[in-house]
Amino acid sequence: MRCYFTYEGRFWAAQPIDAASDDDAIAKAIRAYYDRIDAGTRPVCDGFELWDGMRFIHRHGPGDQGLCQVTQPRVLAKTTNTTIIRPR
Known about the structure:
This protein has one helix at 22-39, and strands at 2-7, 10-16, 47-52, 55-60, 75-78, 83-85. It is of the alpha+beta class and 88 residues long. The chain has one domain. A four-stranded antiparallel sheet has the order 2-1-3-4, with helices on one face. β1 (2-7) and β2 (10-16) form a beta hairpin. It starts with a strand and ends with a strand.
């Protein structure tokens, strides 16, 4: 699977994601996205898309209504089986 980081709707960078399931891949992609933001990695990104070859899995970003919504200040994402908590 591959995570494509986006800025203003364009792909800026990519990162491979190794995962056993879509939920696991989404959780890992969200973690990579926030790690990238926290590290100040350039180019800056405002979202990502997760793909498995030609199969679209998930989109996360401004105005996104997908599976991964920030629901509390410290909760980064909730998927079917996983909750990612942002470290303080």
